[in-house]
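Intended use. Records such as the Methyltransferase entry shown here are meant for training and evaluating sequence-to-structure methods. They are not intended to support clinical decisions.
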Amino acid sequence: MAKDYNGSPKHHGPLDAKRNRITWILGVSGLCILSYIMGSWKSTPTPTSGQYDTVSKVGCEGGSSLSSKASPFSSSNLDFESHHQLDLNGSSGLQEFPPCDMKYSEYTPCQDQVRGRRYDRNMLKYRERHCPAKDELLYCLIPAPPNYKAPFRWPQSRDYAWYDNIPHKELSIEKAIQNWIQVEGDRFRFPGGGTMFPRGADAYIDDLNQLIPLRTGSIRTAIDTGCGVASFGAYLLKRDVIAMSFAPRDTHEAQVQFALERGVPAMIGIMGSLRLPYPARAFDMAHCSRCLIPWGKYDGLYLIEVDRILRPGGYWVLSGPPIHWKRYWRGWQRTQEDLQKEQDEIERVAAKVTRSDKVAGGELEKWPKRAFTLPPRISSGSIPGITAEKFKADNDMWRDRMVHYKRIAPLSQGKFRNVMDMNAYLGGFAAAMLKYPVWVMNVVPPNSDHDTLGAIFERGLIGTYHDWCEAFSTYPRTYDMIHAGGIFNIYQDRCNVTLILLEMDRILRPEGTVIFREGVELLVKIKSITDAMRWKSSITDHESGPFNPEKILVAEKTYWTGEANQSQN
């Protein structure tokens, strides 16, 4: 007979055990949630007065004015600031940047004419890039001239620009006979003339078309050396040929600035002692119309450089001295002997330049098919790590991104003409923008993971190498839109990011737009700096949704101008 032991443990059924486990789990979860809430509350800083209200504090010295338009961005704003406090180059606690003195209104940091006088005049080294030292850097905002207006929209901008935007009459006087530019009341008119264009650039290009195929799509990219106000490039555009026009900052005041104000691709540059910032085999055509480059000197160095950047089968067009010197030598004010010698030197150098007529990876497709065809440098494996699959994926990604960009920026309203991609990669952004009346300067930083600029040119697009630790080779207020995807992730540990943003402010026109793409912590700090630069901005989610760690910052540079009597220390 079994005994009943009163002190023995009681038997628990399955229901009791399950209830205990649930109670334990809920208790632990509650403690975790309470701990997280307390930690978040303690780590959230108390906002201090004025920490993020710099945009509204306008009253800068010098009488600058600031528009008070509502934000143009349609996407919902996200507030990450109180939870992301990354200190980027010691930029925390920024005050609003003051305007620079009006004497800097057309400042080009690396082509400063005063600084250039310190350098050798041999091979025009004094007109090459010479960037400011640390103690020469400006931490102020370059002012627009009084009465600055938004440029004419393309295609009207090809023929007209506002006088107040570039108040220089020198070229209209100096080049009056050659019909470069004319002053008509409150605006400039560009008749299309040039030193070698007595009937205008349009007729000149028609004559050129009888010698080389400018309308077949086989010539797409060109470089115009010593471009003047870029009328040659301006009239090539209607033939679907895009030219990189360049000229130095010299006695022909503001010639590149006029070109960009017209909506024509251009850079400040010169053939001196350094290579041009373009890859080998980049251009389909190179053009010199009385560009004053001594082609036969220095053992043919300059002609060899043109040979480097021309693709096999490309064309070099030289008009002006010494070509046809026997007919024109009297008007050129040079002796027959001098002109004959120059032509002999050019022919000697041209004869010794030899190269393959073939392109590694295959021939280029004709434009416009070329824009989305796999570039030969990728198909041949010349760019390590870049494959046909990555090229296709990049194009697909940009097709989707442009749908989103149309919602957050006014791409289709004709507001933008000159566009820059600061970190172009394969040129997918520029290719996706081809449907709009814009052109894109594709910039490839030299410290990028891949040297892709050659492939960008093979797509029929244009661009340049550039290190963003230095100023870009352009005038202030020359771009309508800037795309900056991943660029600050590259440079945040290399140089002062505040200076990169000030450079973006310099080259962006008033009411221009910038699209940034970075991680949220970087974007929050970038926004704090752009707020101090008087920009209006908002952070939005990635186009794929809120769970993607990359976010988008859309910013607009507000309209303000300097005053003629403005003076700052």
